[in-house]
Amino acid sequence: MLELSLHILDVLENSIEAGATRITLSIEEQVKEDRLTIMVRDNGPGMSEEMAQKAVDPFVTTRTTRHVGLGLPLFAAAAERCNGRLWIEAKPGEGTTVVATFQNSHIDRPPLGNLPATIMAAVLSEQLVDVSYKHTVDGRTFELDTAEIRRGLEPVPLSAPRARQWLESKLQEGLVGLQRPFP
Amino acid sequence: MSRLKTIEELKKLREEAQRDIRVRTETGTKIIVGMGTCGIAAGARETMHAILEELKKREVEAHVTTVGCIGMCVKEPLVDIEQAGNPRVTYSNVHPDMVPRLIEEHLINGRVVEEWVVGRLPSA
Q: Of A162, B21, B50, B70, whose Cβ has the fewest other Cβ atoms within 10 Å?
């Protein structure tokens, strides 16, 4: 995958497929510490510790269409080639957390990419799911919770064209605000 | 951006969108984009974005949603179009530059773009 946001979308889709209704996405860019941390936490059914350890094996999947699942292994490989790693914290019935770390300045670190598009694609899925998004760059934070926006819009669905565009533009504005100010 | 301003904007948006919905009649058109690992790697997110943009541009109403991997990864991005009373048509390798023609021919003119079809499911 060319962008980290595509890996993130993949993990979000995993959560949605597992039946999560609420996902927390947190991205922390620490330029001085040279660290990038991506965390996705959901309220889905979770999994055993054993499964959590096996999930990064490409030959382990819960799907029945085929015997391979590449989403997490690809994400883990991306982290590992940037002096980082990926791990899963989960318990049955208590949701799942996926954490990936990267050396921020590593030459192989893919760009974060189009995060608004990733969040929109997740929120527009068939199942009702809300994403609470927190993005920090060197202590500056942008936060947005689609659940709050959904409540404010009632009874208009988030998928209504106007609502969708508004949310996407808010995400874009928020991320522009996080850019490092000119020295 | 202040929180209050956001809430004001939301309220205004809600009123406008509600008006839209009242004018809109249920079209029963559903567009489903494959968003598994394979779909994402093949560019499904950009395809979905192109579909949403094209629908907006042409003022066509359709419900756009995503689905996981269906096992035909080599044909991703896969896009299904389902219209009430018609078979569900699956298009393969749908890239953003193909979207305008797809929307125009299938949704507006009601003609299936046969050369891009990879499968059909009878209507439920």
A: B21
